[in-house]
Amino acid sequence: MGRIGIIGVGHTKFGKRSDASLRELAFEAYSSALDDADMDSSKIDGSVVCSATHYDKQRSPAGVVAEYLGLNPQPTFNVEAACASSAVGLRTGWALVSSKLHDVMAVVGVQKMTELSSEEIQELMGRAGDVMWESPFGTTMPAYYAMYATAHMAKYGTTEEQMALVTVKNRKYGSKNPNAMFQKPITTEEVLKSRPVSAPLKLFDCCANADGAACLIIANAEKAKKLTDRPVWVAGLGLASSPMSLAGRTGPLTSFDVTKNAAKAAYQMAGVGPNDVDVAEVHDSFSITEILNYEDLGFAKPGSGTRLLEKGETELGGKIPVNIDGGLISKGHPVGATGASQLFALTRQLRGEAGSTQVDGAKLGLAQNIGGIGMYSAVTILRA
Amino acid sequence: MGFEKFGRFGYVSQTKVNPLLSYLEKGKIAATRCKKCGRKYFPPRADCLDCRHSIIEWVVLDGKSNLITFTQVFFAPPVFQPETPYLLGLAELVSGSRVFAPISPTVDKEQLKPGLELNLKVAKGSRDNLYYWLE
Ligand SMILES: [Zn+2]
Fold it and tell me: The whole model's pTM is what?
């Protein structure tokens, strides 16, 4: 199996982008990825467009995105895995390039959410779970994660104050990321005082809907070496699924089996373990999710994820810096773009280009991206 | 009316497990059982995972259960907003199946904790809708 390299990355400003349509957001990210790779469109022989299409006004958005990026008549198609769309898009692109069907591809994650009314968004959110057996009771995205939080609190004594530390940490780093939706630090007290969304989760325990795009240009080893002198290599890919229904899952709901399975596959493929990771991006759709992710990825023992936070081990300068681009909690969560945004951040870290948030000598990065209410999880390991 | 009658607000109208509604009408909660291998399913399934047999029978379920986890929803989808805040729970029935269900407002929220014994009972909505909840 030949190696696949990321040779260019691009990222738009995330947030309420009332100035731009879906196709224009995709163009911003794609164009800056081409600039980053110092190349033009002529070598791109296919595109993978990643978005959770139920949020898009445009049906089958790959069609219009490929047209607007100037990528006709090359193959294009949509990859959808809810919040994990572009991590699954990278896996798809990796397989297409590995198979030699393609040499150089653009993986474009994009989402336009804020032009939907909050009523429309809430209606969609209400059908995020099993629409036959769970949505009819008034489920929401936060409600599912809140139920994991309740279970974790009951089993391990995790507190709302400890969960708030995730938001405080991530918002601190978000203030250093010009692409982030929220660039203002926040205090534990502000998090604790924010209005309840789904107990025990409060407003500032949750990430926000956003518009945005991120793009990865990938290539086979030969092309990657020819086109750039600083490729970042895809070392491990793990992806797993879990029952969509909460009732279909086993165990005490204090961890995500889907992430443990994805992590196992990614570590195995890369030939590394959690202690080898220099810098990580994990899916902090909610504060509690980041804590569960520490444990599911093997950064902490079950029940002790909060100790990493309290000891500052996931801060810049700690044992394993996590979400030091601000995470979903600061950047906002344009569903289809989030996975590529995480890989954008890791690529810059592994090239030593992360500026004031650079992890010294970072050689191995890990990104973990959960889809929806935990029915998909993707773990991607990159190596400098 | 089809299966959209199931739940506080149902989305799916057509399914092979529609007979659940007639059990709920009689105040009973029912699971399906594979006629070939005997595996029991709740929520009901029309098709057996183990032997891919699709001839099933209905069996009435014991509602005794233990709470696994719960939440109180404040921010809800539009059709559920008039009822906020409301409680949702996940419980394990004595039969071993798990059930996702609302928790009846008669249950004292302060007493809720994983492990609490609850009963899954039939509930009726104001729009002629039928479901079950934990009480
Ligand atoms: Zn069977």
Answer: 0.97
